[in-house]
């Protein structure tokens, strides 16, 4: 299971991901932050990207992704949607 999260305040933001096995033991984790907030959706998506990248590095081919963001779930449910994986790209940089 890849559990992801994003957070956003007026002055900072960040995201994280943790991969756990079926016994709830942590396999890998990643976290990063930014001092220039963009949007919570961007950070939620970056958490998913970080988790999937970790899964690839650990040769995990079958994973479940958990998020508490209805917006992010709706993005993945849309067919043909281009997901803005990088915050800088969605910010016009």
From TrEMBL:
GO terms for molecular function: nucleic acid binding; RNA-DNA hybrid ribonuclease activity. InterPro entries: RNase_H-like, RNaseH-like_sf, RNaseH_domain, RNaseH_sf. Residues 3-77 form the RNase H type-1 domain. It holds the Pfam family RVT_3. It comes from the Eukaryota. SUPFAM superfamilies: Ribonuclease H-like. This is Ribonuclease H domain. It comes from Macleaya cordata.
């Amino acid at each position: 299971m890849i559990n992801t999260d994003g957070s956003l305040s007026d002055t900072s933001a960040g995201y994280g991901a943790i991969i756990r096995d079926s016994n709830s033991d942590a396999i890998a984790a990643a976290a990063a932050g930014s001092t220039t907030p963009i949007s919570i959706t961007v950070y939620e998506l970056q958490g998913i990207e970080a988790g999937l990248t970790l899964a690839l590095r650990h040769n995990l081919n079958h994973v479940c992704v958990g998020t508490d963001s209805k917006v992010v779930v709706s993005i993945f449910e849309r067919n043909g949607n281009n997901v803005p994986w990088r915050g800088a790209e969605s910010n016009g940089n």
